[in-house]
Amino acid sequence: xxxxxxxxxxxxxxxxxxxAAWHVAKGDSVKRDQPLVDIETDxxxxxxxxxxxxxxxxxxxxxxxxxxxxxxxxKLKEGEAGESTAPAEEEKEDKPEAKAEEASSETExxxxxxxxxxxxxxxxxxxxxxxxxxxGKDGRITKADVINHLDSxxxxxxxxxxxxxxxVPPAPAGREEKRVSMSRLRARIAERLLQASQTTAMLTTxxxxxxxxxxxxxxxxxxxxxxxxxxxxxxMSLFVRACAEALKRFPAVNASIDGDDVVYHGYQDxxxxxxxDRGLVVPILRDxxxxxxxxxxxxxxxxxQKAKGGQLTLDDMTGGTFTISNGGVFGSMMSTPILNPPQxxxxxxxxxxxxxxxxxxxxxxxxxxYLALSYDHRLIDGKEAVQFxxxxxxxxxxxxxxxxxx
Length: 406
Fold this sequence. Notes:
single chain, alpha+beta, Chloramphenicol Acetyltransferase, four-stranded antiparallel β-sheet, 25% strand
């Protein structure tokens, strides 16, 4: 019996996806829940698994094809995977047919680690699969891996030393160019950034915060905090809690614009920008106003691991009323973060640097950080934006204010 393989049902915020890679080829035997194909959307890569044991009968949507939610992308002939008619080990021992079977089996195992598109290119170029390093899931060889292998093979190599004169002068190195398609995530990021710059009245206000109180708090309690909660105490959780409290006081900063309407949210869902191999992603911390520091740290760690493994889900990425971006981890001193519509504000954190500041009429050295708040001036007045940023600054410089809600 043939079973239809369908793309996942996409949420309203995702219109379609692109077939990124088939992990099996037509005619391959597969087992239930085995990964078959990756579908890249604007936000995440979704994995489609085999609905049952069987053989991949047909691939309807090839790699690179655009598909909609619940669209048929292939067919599976049920009931033929995992069934073995091979003779027992003792019966195979001196039979040439058995040895041929084993060799054939090894070949199938090897080819199973190569994506179909990569396999076609390998056969076309007559390449040795064992010489190509796979960067796909579980070490699979992708088409990009084959292309990179071909590029490295054609790159000029340093000649071995020889006492004999070169018969022909070495050719000068060429100026190579490489054209690749933009990923859906990168294309979506570009689209949203352009949309934000064209459709919002974006303005940025700056302030600086003395990180010494926070650093002393962390140094004093980091060991006991980790022992009690199983996660490390970082700066991000304190900034998230400070922002959550400030958002309660300034509802416009936590609001969103929907056409001619303003939507005021009675909760604080804060997105934390995380860098991944596919680009910048922003998973959402839900109800941060009700979360403890340990819960925030644990969730941020979870998101970081999922982002590295490409396992963030659409639920992880959907929604959000405010965003925090920490360019300081990459060494940024100051920047103007761009809004993430329909949100009306985003906070940018930056590198901590020791600077000379004046306290009580004296010049002292303090670990300082610049903060930047970009906001949509259509909804948020400058006074509100400045007051919000000052509230965050005061809570970070005196963390007891978070607990006391001052």
